Queue: 4 jobs
Job 1
Amino acid sequence: MAMAEPRNEQLEGDVPTVQAVGYRRYHIDTAPTPDLADLPHRFLVEVDRVELLKLLVKETWEYWGDWDVVAARPCVYGVFSGPIGGFAPRPEHCVGCLRCTIQHPEAVTIRHNPEWKAWGDTYLSPKLVETILSEATLGAVPVKGQGYRGRFGGPGWDRIWTDMSEIVRPTRDGIHGREFISTVVDIGSRPMHLATNGDGERPRCLQLPLPILFDSPPESAQTVVMARLLAHAAEELETLAFLPLPLVREAGAASPAVVPQLRASELAALQPAPRMVEILDDAPAALALTDAIVCERLPFEPGWREALLASIAAGVRVFHLVADYHGRGDGRFVRDLVMEAHALLVEKGLRDMVTLIGSGGIAAAEHVPKAIICGFDAVALDTPLLAALQAQPKGSVTDAATARFRLPESLNVEWGVQRLKNLAAAWRDQLLEIMGAMGLREVRRLRGELGRAMFQRDLEREAFGGIDGYD
Ligand code: SF4
């Protein structure tokens, strides 16, 4: 019998409280959705035709009559060995193995294609963009069949390894459906005690089946089509999309899945009240002005700790902590910032009362579980959404105010919604894989579980501490 997870639905006009009304298994419908335009190929294959002709003459002399050998070139991918013995290379198939140029340096040169590099920046690299495009096209976990070829450590999230030791924990099989793993996450307030005299804080909570929300696009990508697309995709995925209030109005995109971003003073004109609002200035002041769940957008800037504690004391329970697109804030990387925020709230006995949503620096599927392990309840994606929609960055894109993206001319809502559904399905499957290997039954238990992660810094200290030269 198929297992199912509880679904909480809000009745129309009702206060958005937890209310289980049935059981249904969460599923994302994927469908192949090809790119609107091909990405430039990664490598430029330059053939010196004069040198190749000399090679051809030499080989013809040496292997006269053995024409297969004469025309053969050292490239198993059919690039340099392509039609007419390499005179018309097919760079779109080149993987950059360099075998050709090692064997015939005089005849062929392989270079990185600058046009391909322009599809990413120093953080969201073209390689990550390629992976995202594959996920958005197929809705499946990318499998290359070449083993892991990346670094075993590095900056950012690469300093963390997830502990998926099967020896000490039974694995679960979430991705193939034999065992159920829940990705439901609570967004809202969870009072720490029950008050029977009616004065206590009421639990006000939304349950989302996915710990992945959509952050508002940068100003250069705030178009009507984009707003409708994000709202529609969030609705189909049963998650939430943050969008600026003027854009919501202009696009007619208001829906239960849309969280308008506005100032507290604008709340009075917001009718009917949505399920949740994101306040850009004075979130405590907004509490008395709306029935919606109030989320405070809090950039990781100097003073964020004090602002966080003050807003919690004033009654705010949902925070959207925002680093820049490269995951930087207050001089540090978001990994360290969220660990500090989580530890601060644990120390004050406040952590279970509040929800922390994180944005900035989440650029690959494995960053989601790592961010949750470090302390976020859920993440709100920014640049990966644009990459999935084939929006091309113009130069380095570090923050929402200055980032410039060029959206595809033929971008349309139907195509974009399916691309984001595919991306969400692929990322959810990878989250399930990680939780399955950890033996975890639900993503809520992953939050702040630092014991599920290994940190490069700690392991290096264990291995090399005390050795001269290591500090
Ligand atoms: S680098 Fe490798 S794949 Fe590319 S042309 Fe040379 S041999 Fe072929």
Note: Residues 45, 75, 77, 79-80, 94-100, 110 surround iron/sulfur cluster (CB under 6 Å).
Job 2
Amino acid sequence: MSIENRELLDQQYATLYEALGQDEDFAFWLQSLPQQIEELTFGKPHGKRQLWLDTLAALPALTASDHDFTQGKVRIGQAGDCTDEQRAELKQLLETFIPWRKGPFELFGIDIDTEWRSDWKWERVIPHLSPLAGRRILDVGCGSGYHLWRMLGEGAAQVIGIDPSLFFLMQFHSMKHYAPEAPVHFLPLRSEDLPDFSRKGFDTVFSMGVLYHRRSPLDHLQELKNSLRDGGELVLETLVVDGDVHTALMPEDRYGKMRNVWFIPSVAMLELWLRRLGFRDIRAVDVTVTSTDEQRSTEWMRFESLTNFLDPDDSTRTIEGYPAPKRAVIVATL
Ligand SMILES: C[S@@+](CC[C@H](N)C(=O)[O-])C[C@H]1O[C@@H](n2cnc3c(N)ncnc32)[C@H](O)[C@@H]1O
């Protein structure tokens, strides 16, 4: 199988491998990581991968005069950095990566209004964390990478996102192409693919919107623990239900039309899981019901969204009759 136009990804990985190789606590990862990435990115036939790589390779050569990762809209470049013709060409290429779910972004004056106001989640999370400045951060299940940029905006030293979706990897690179030096990387791994860093891993590990997708939530939490350093901080964001320490919802089939939802625990049960795994200083810092202003269809995500997943006669219930999505943020220390 010959794969064209893979240089952009190869260059990005090479930069990361060089950085990892210079770090005594992370260098061991290089024994497995390059082969794993090769296998996960290119190992299997994939109907769209070549189209996506060709799209990335066709991105116009523009230089961003600046960027801003500190505001709700992650912005790279200014409208004045390119001609109207170049912007139209870029917009068309970015449309190859519709649906855009996590954002919003602005690239050379093009507004990408995503399905989710991921900036709202960030605003709920960030006030409660140890400052991210100078830290090495892992974001597990990073989607398009929106929060990776916000972590950089907080001054993180290095940010690595992992997500098994090659589609999201390509969305990320359509941004990274215009900020090639930024110390932010996206690896197409699942949390199950991470090594045990023997308590010398990342300073902060995020897992937002992933736990309920795992059949085995405790294994997921153990993988997050294995990625942290001693004294490091876990930021866990997930769906929850009301109830005591004995309460969790397991949907019979779909939840809010999603197929792959397994456990939705109460906050009290989540805290118990974290205590059992050896976390300390466990704090539920936010619980919010998701609104149809936060998750909705847009020009950049034209499929159904939250309104269609709720009971039309009772917005406190999903279409299947379960409690409507409510999300908690839990912070804990290793
Ligand atoms: C609901 S999205 C959350 C995206 C982002 N973290 C956020 O909070 O907006 C869940 C993401 O987790 C990813 N995911 C699913 N299973 C995973 C696993 N085992 N390891 C890592 N990521 C996973 C999915 O591909 C998807 O992008």
Note: The chain has one domain: 7-333.
Job 3
Amino acid sequence: MMKTAVSTPIVKRLVLLGGGHSHLSVLMHLARKPLDGLEIVLITRDVHTPYSGALPGFIAGIYDHDDIHIDLRPLAHMAGAVLIQEEISNLDLENKRVICAKRPPIRFDILSLNIGSLPDATKIPGATEFAIGVKPMDVFLARWDEVKNSAVQALKRGESYSIAIVGGGPASVELAFSSQHAINWAAGIKKHTSSRLQIKIITADSQLMKFHNKRVKDFTRRELESRAVELYFDHRVEAFQANTIICEGLQSISADTIFYATGASIPQWPAQSGLATNDQGFIAVNTFLQTLSHPYVFACGDAASTEGHPRPKSGVYAVRQGMPLAKNIIRFATGKKLKPFVPQKNALALIYTGDRKAIASKNKRFFKGRWVWAWKHKIDMDFMKKYRELPPVKSTLKLASGLVDKETEETLKQHAIRCAGCGAKVGSSILNNVISNLDTVKHDDIVVSGSVIEDASLIKISAKRTLVQTVDYFRAFINDPWLFARIATNHCLGDIYAMGAQPHSALAIASVPFAAQKIMHETLSELMAGCVDVLNEHDTALAGGHSNEALELGFGLNVNGFARPDQLLSKSGLMVGDELILCKPLGTGTLLAADMRLKAKGRWMLAAFDQMLISSREAAECFRQHQANACTDITGFGLAGHLLEMINPDNAAVELNLGSLPVMDGVLDCISQKIFSSLHSDNSLAMNSIYNTEAFRKQPRFELLFDPQTAGGLLGSVPAEQVQSCLQTLKANGYAQACSIGRVVDNNGSNAQIALI
Ligand SMILES: Cc1cc2nc3c(=O)[nH]c(=O)nc-3n(C[C@H](O)[C@H](O)[C@H](O)COP(=O)(O)OP(=O)(O)OC[C@H]3O[C@@H](n4cnc5c(N)ncnc54)[C@H](O)[C@@H]3O)c2cc1C
């Protein structure tokens, strides 16, 4: 009897909006205890979500970027969540849709908002033009480096530099201590009081740290004054101008840089979308963390306020809400009774005071010193570690014991995590073997270029017109159907451009996992919207297609294009003396493999997706204008495999400059960890055609030769005298990493096909 594959149908969609502290717990909980049938989508502005508690340590130079950011990509992956990077500013609550600027709306059954807050000084006139808010933190961090450099340079020239910080709470105080420490230290100044760096704190209150006990307030003030920090009390800021703070009824205060770290506020769009808010504009929730207006919308962290239990805006509260939120979302999704959560009344605050010291404040308690910093450091880093050091992805191999020997079983186990995208192609060794044994019908109008198998079939329509056809299909290499379809479509069009043709129309084949009808409808809609977006950009009609229900998401296209015969580009035709130009950096295979193992950083993947979305249209046009003698696109068989298809060993060989190969961010890191695509080992058979591998095997870029590319760049063989102009044109058209990677040489009668230099 035929065995039936079983998959769990998706029946509901949970959208987590914002990658804040509470949603970290929700993702972790759902990763550990998946709710079968629930699809999770995380939409967030920052894929590396900043942890503000560690910001002062970063400013003081103790931590680096990755120490203070949680990478949401591996975490989302572990929870099986689709990760979408978007900044949202609108909700359609009636139709349960999140409105996106860059892509079609995303429908939800349950929505949870954990979008943090912004300093309320954002609303003061001139704030965005003339001052820098401490949040969004990544905007602040991007500006901080500039400020620090300007200040250090000024001090080194013997000039003064001033920083004014608006706000009298812990964030301002920490910023004052840490920025003073960092700048003076970098300028080689040991004593703050003898520095020409002036730090000013401006607050509308008559004291600092108004929500803390007297000992905390007194100590902070004394400590700042002893470091010559100027304190301006009862100064309500009315406006910001260039290098000037205008205060109500008082003199203005000047500074080279103005920061603000004032009380919290949230943007207006949640209220404008119809969510109930409290007097201060925060999303009003009940003790179940459900919004008062929409039971299927939850909210937490700084952006929300629990009715009857207002609390200061602090990450501690957001963290504490995480688990109750996760459990209530699950209860809501499964029709169970929700449980109330009342936030604790007081939270411990650990505040950095520079010089690796900190103070602790809770109720009437106050402690200070190096040990408090060590304590804070441990708490912060333990928190980060929980989300950074994720358990390894286990490869499960279901094989009855005794069917194969232990060694074979071990090899199969190592390869049990199978790649998708171009890493899921059948290896060229198997493919060539099968194809060469087929006895196929021949037609006179099918154009063949000698023994070379081209990227597309060529059918002669008339003396002036050739039909160019390609077909390709992928198992999804990312779980976001829209982005997946965009990349897959761009990849499929690449074969047409590699032939020098213009795409005309396409037929699609879509495989959609079994799910509730509305979910299948959404998945297919997202898939097709992504596909059509890209086809439309290329003036290519979607002429039809087929869909089927499958165990996993998959998508492919048959693309038709046309070209005049004299315009066609071919793989064959390398001329001795040509240089080889590669348009895009390499590494998608190893990156996608790392992504599956939760080892790829979010920013690497975002940058890789951007590369995969760059069309080959302009590159093909550029190669044609620069009289390229041959062209192909680098895809599943990797650079070496595709290059070998271009070389006719009877008359040419290639010298490949390994060190010049352009590479995507993070790729060498993944290769050094020996993370390879499942197609890599088959592609590595191309090594047999490389003349001098021994001397180069240990070089980090060596393995790149065999890395399968999804939507990889075109490789063109361009006459030497055209190379400079060709590269200039490519770069002007967005192929920033295009470069010459080698040249075609006479093989002098030897069998060598590729020599590394
Ligand atoms: C300098 C400084 C130091 C601090 N130190 C501490 C401390 O030591 N301890 C402490 O407890 N608190 C501290 N805080 C307060 C703390 O930063 C906040 O209370 C906490 O970050 C709030 O967490 P959250 O989960 O609500 O949101 P956040 O952690 O701010 O996360 C918000 C998330 O939502 C995303 N997002 C925002 N808007 C959108 C949108 N429109 N569309 C999509 N995604 C969006 C963001 O990308 C981010 O992922 C400090 C604050 C500052 C400024």
Note: The first helix runs from residue 21 to 32.
Job 4
Amino acid sequence: MTLSKRLEMVATLVDESARVIDVGCDHAYLDIYLTLNNNNKCLATDININALNIAINNIKKYNLENKIETKLTDGLKGIKVDSSDNIVICGMGAHTIIDILNTNKLSDTLIISSNNNIDILRKEVVKLGFYIDSEIFIIDKNKPYVIIKFKRGFKKYKKIDYIFGPILKDNKEYKKYMYEKCNKILNNISKDKIILRLKYKYLLHKIKK
Ligand SMILES: C[S@@+](CC[C@H](N)C(=O)[O-])C[C@H]1O[C@@H](n2cnc3c(N)ncnc32)[C@H](O)[C@@H]1O
């Protein structure tokens, strides 16, 4: 089982031997990989019956029916979560992820990668009583991804930490990516939008520092 570079990075953040709840498993590649390589006990869930049926077929192909559970559900609905579980939610929008996290008791470890609004995601998950334990930035097939491991607990963050990531703000490759992104946005903001332009100039200044 070979994974995409992105899912491989997600796998590196999963605790060995932990029970994993993979919300939005799609084809269950991550669950199969973790079962075979990281001694995890996975519950692969999806809201979409077609995706889950493909997951079930893939699990059968690897003879892992007795090791990987599956469930058709919306987010964490109907799932009994233990504090020691690793909840993995990747490949969805930040607001969908936040909604999912707000509907159930959570475990002490969350591994999350949203497609957008990473600053909002960081802030909202911290509000739920978590701190940022690890952050990974990768480019996979020309697309940038940030993967974050949250753990239950408290750390104080500044606004800028939510924007650039308390760990990634010191990552050279991520800073370069963020600088180019902010610069591109700034160049597209019309001259009369003074406050918005100032915001992006401030962000560029912060990245340079
Ligand atoms: C882009 S795929 C990502 C799959 C995999 N997690 C990954 O990162 O490669 C998003 C998956 O999330 C599922 N999904 C979207 N909203 C969901 C929800 N509220 N609860 C469970 N699954 C959901 C979709 O059906 C789809 O299979």
Note: DSSP finds eight helices and seven strands in the chain.
